[in-house]
């Protein structure tokens, strides 16, 4: 476990929606990733710039121990959004960017793995702040490592190992996150 694991994220408000998903095997995790990608596409397609309902991006924090399935879920989401190449775990680079062409238009996705992130000053230096401010989808593993820098996410996916499978507790903290989670 990283030394700073006790660091906590932003104190979160009450969730607007909480759902529990049983994921008995890896196929179930992949299927959830697919549903999440479709929900994301639908939410983006629904947002209407004419009504000032622009999609302003989405931050998803993925929590859970090593091996809980965070990267597996990110990989499934990226594949379902149309990414055909490899999905590297950004353990050393901290972030891996993806420029995708989805059915709801071009979409930037940033996959963070903050396991080795230690110095909050690095946040601004690395320009991470801007990634969250560009209408992109940010999928963040080990969000605890960034302390309060991340602010309140749209969604938290908490994965737990249960027997041979996994349990996912998903919580939404914004309207966009809620609409998305309702469609999963
Ligand atoms: P993390 O990023 O949380 O450290 P990974 O996604 O790298 O975890 O690894 C998760 C491991 O668990 C992989 O070996 C994957 O095949 C497996 N796995 C993923 N989802 C499930 C599931 N629902 N049930 C059982 N095994 C799973
Ligand atoms: Mg991982």
TrEMBL record:
InterPro entries: P-loop_NTPase, T6A_TsaE. Belongs to the TsaE family. SUPFAM superfamilies: P-loop containing nucleoside triphosphate hydrolases. This is tRNA threonylcarbamoyladenosine biosynthesis protein TsaE. It is found in: Cytoplasm. GO terms for cellular component: cytoplasm. GO terms for molecular function: ATP binding; hydrolase activity; metal ion binding. One of its GO terms (biological process) is tRNA threonylcarbamoyladenosine modification.
